[in-house]
Specification:
Layout lengths: L6 E5 L5 E5 L4 H8 L1 H6 L2 E4 L2 E3 L9 E6 L6 H20 L4 E5 L7 E6 L6 H17 L4 E5 L1 H11 L2 H8 L7 E6 L2 E4 L13 E11 L8 E10 L2 H17 L1 H7 L3 E2 L9 E2 L1 H20 L3 E2 L5 E3 H7 L1 H5 L5 E4 L2 E5 L4 H8 L4 E2 L5 E5 L2 E3 L15 E11 L4 H18 L5 E6 L9 H17 L5 E3 L9 E7 L5 E10 L2 H4 L4 E2 L5 E2 L2 E10 H12 L12 E5 L5 H14 L3 E3 L6 H10 L4 E5 L1 H6 L1 E6 L4 E6 H13 L6
Parallel strand pairs: 1-5, 15-20, 19-27, 23-24, 30-31, 30-32
Antiparallel strand pairs: 1-2, 3-4, 3-5, 6-7, 7-12, 8-9, 9-10, 11-12, 13-14, 16-18, 17-18, 20-22, 21-22, 22-29, 23-25, 25-26, 26-29, 27-28, 32-33, 33-34
Helix pairs in contact: 3-4, 5-6, 8-16, 13-14
């Protein structure tokens, strides 16, 4: 059945189709379905994109409405609370100009203000109280389409010069919309809730300075962050999660556990202290063992290479904004952001046979990528790092087997670190890329076939691939349910072409190999940051820099404590002695703060029996054990890389 030109077809979640007139709003559709739904509705979605309830529909498609019970309502609620925040500031300090809010309202909202000083904690309390007053007014949010001239006239009258500048940034021909509630009006695309009553609870989180439009050459504005939910219960649950995340913050724990630090002489480049370097190297050794077991040969390659190499690889044209450059003796060089071109050079040192393939090169070389200072974050996004990187050169017939093998190894490694919740995503050709579309189609189909052969579920991220090929990204969820992208498998038909790589096939002719790029942990820095937050710094025994601390109950038993330490150390454990003249409880609490897996308490009874009283870091008392018994147990757990204590 064809649809009339002035009619739209909306497909509801249950599969039913509904014909509506062109220009009908989502709220009118809700009212037609039922008055209860219309009253409770917070927002709508058309073909997966959020839309405002008052927005006229200009196309049909998959359509759904949602209420406060649906998680999709959260961004609508927070976006609307954002406007209430700006309204509250202007009511408290008339004449304050507002800039823009936040684009991503998945967890927070924010507004930037032209304000003469930094907002204080007392200011935030006043603003939050004023927001509560505004919410009680239960004003409706109204959407209004206006001309550019009408919008300019409104903001000129209000003295909102920042808004006038923002207005100029809106492209010609694009709809200009305002949103109003009560006396407040702002330039905004929406979407918003129906009325303030649907904003159940608000909380202001912090304030900071922020440059206008994010440009450090512009003036400094004052930013306020907050969050909001449909109920006080949801807000309290969120704040509890935030508190847990703060307690697990790897930057705080990195300092507390003396793992790493940062220094402005090398922005966004970590300095690993002895304990941090131990964990870092242990992670690398774990992957080295896996590489050896699965037939990878480790290589070492230079960090600074002639810029022409990066022109050949395509990085110069497609990636140079994230690279560091240097000039020596009139010759331009680039600091290595990736290992793949250097591995192509090694492969090309001689003509290979199909019998040699697959050839697997692993590389733990240092990499450097320029990241803007505004996006760097502890170990999670740095400029200097090391990947557990590898590249496989193989025949087209071997590709699927190699990909399956890599994915299974990665999944096994993640489970060993306690990451049980995993998601897989295939990322397709991005807008900025190289090569023929047919090769991209072939590569994407190969990745899908490899995952399908293992019965693995996966999503698709359109346009998210590397510039030289599509990829499989593997994501883990940590102890707080936060998702992190770690490993990646990238299929590349283009670099072998650009570097003219060849092998002699069974037919005696020369053929082009296929290249698979692979990182399992990703960057060691990022993985370590995620692991610290996942474990709250309580590493498994095999990764703990100090595995056991001997704690004499008093100075009298210091000699026996030293004997215990020496015996266990000679047996292969990493052990320290706390011989300070401090109370036992104090020393145990401090050891727990350092996340040391075992505390071995020794006193007269233990000395007489040649034993230690064993306590786990979480507080469990395992009782008295003989030295050999404890050593055997700890070594077995450590050598098997167990997550148990």
């Amino acid at each position: 059945m064809s649809t009339a030109p002035d009619q739209l077809t909306l497909t509801l979640p249950n599969g039913d189709e509904r014909q509506v007139a062109l220009g009908t709003t989502a709220l009118e559709v809700a009212q037609d379905i039922g008055p209860g739904l219309a009253k409770a509705a917070i927002g709508a979605e058309l073909d997966g994109a959020p839309i405002d309830l008052r927005q006229p529909l200009h196309q049909g498609g998959a359509f759904r409405l949602f209420t406060a019970k649906n998680p999709e309502s959260g961004p609508f609620i927070r976006h609307s609370a954002e406007h209430v925040l700006a309204d509250a500031v202007q009511r408290l300090w008339p004449g304050t100009e507002i800039d823009a809010g936040r684009r991503d309202h998945s967890e927070k909202y924010q507004y930037d203000f032209r304000f003469p000083r930094t907002f204080t904690p007392e200011d935030l309390e006043k603003i939050e109280a004023k927001m509560a007053e505004i919410l009680k007014e239960n004003a409706s949010f109204e959407r209004q389409e206006v001309s550019r001239e009408e919008a300019a006239a409104i903001f000129e009258e209000l003295g909102e010069t920042l808004k006038l500048e923002r207005l100029q940034d809106i492209p010609e021909g694009e709809r200009i919309t305002l949103y109003r509630h009560g006396r407040f009006v702002d330039l905004c695309r929406g979407p918003h809730v129906q009325n303030a009553k649907q904003i159940g609870a608000v909380k202001l989180l912090e304030s900071s300075g922020a440059y206008f439009k994010g440009d450090e050459n512009n003036e400094m504005l004052q930013r306020v962050y907050g969050t909001a939910f449909s109920s006080k219960k949801e807000l309290e649950e969120y704040l509890e999660r935030v508190e847990q995340a703060r307690a697990r913050d790897h930057r705080r724990l990195g300092q507390q556990l003396d793992l790493f630090s940062f220094n402005p002489v090398a922005p966004a480049s970590p300095f690993f202290h002895p304990k941090g370097a131990f964990v870092y190297n242990a992670l690398a050794d774990y992957i080295r063992d896996s590489n050896t077991h699965h037939g990878y040969g480790e290589v070492l390659t230079p960090q600074i290479l002639d810029v022409d190499l990066w022109k050949t690889s395509g990085h110069y044209d497609n990636y140079r904004d994230q690279m560091f450059f240097a000039e020596v003796d009139g010759r331009q060089y680039a600091v290595k952001p990736m290992n793949c071109p250097t591995h192509c050079l090694i492969f090309s040192t001689k003509l290979r046979s199909y019998r040699d393939l697959p050839i697997r090169y692993a590389d733990f070389g240092r990499l450097h990528r320029y990241e803007k200072s505004g996006v760097t974050s502890g170990l999670l996004r740095v400029r200097s790092f090391c990947q557990d990187d590898a590249h496989i050169f193989c025949t087209p017939e071997q590709v699927e087997h190699e990909i399956v093998s890599i994915v299974n190894i990665i999944l096994e490694i993640y489970r060993a670190f306690g990451f049980e919740s995993l998601e897989i995503e295939i990322s397709t050709r991005p807008a900025k890329s190289i090569g023929d579309q047919a090769l991209w189609d072939r590569a994407e189909a190969t990745l899908k076939a490899a995952l399908d052969s293992q019965g693995l579920e996966y999503g698709i991220e359109e346009g998210g691939g590397a510039f030289y090929g599509p990829k499989i990204d593997l994501k883990v969820s940590d102890a707080l349910g936060r998702q992190w992208q770690l490993g990646t498998v990238q299929l590349d038909y283009h670099l072998p072409e650009r570097f003219d790589l060849r092998y002699v096939g069974a037919d005696g002719a020369e053929h082009r190999p296929v290249m698979v790029h692979r990182a399992m942990l990703g960057s060691l820095e990022r993985f370590l940051g995620v692991l610290i937050e996942h474990t709250a710094g309580a590493f498994p025994l095999w990764l703990a820099p100090v595995q056991a601390l001997v704690v004499p109950v008093s100075e009298r038993f210091g000699a026996y404590g030293e004997k215990v330490r020496q015996t266990l150390e000679e047996g292969g454990l990493r052990v320290e002695l706390d011989g300070r003249n401090e109370k036992l409880g104090y020393k145990i609490r401090e050891a727990q703060m350092q996340k040391i897996p075992y505390m071995l308490v020794v006193g007269g009874r233990e000395e007489d029996a040649g034993q230690v009283s064993v306590r786990r870091r979480a507080g469990e008392d395992l009782g008295a054990l003989g030295l050999e018994e404890f050593l055997s147990r700890a070594l077995e757990l450590s050598e098997s890389r167990s997550g148990e204590l």
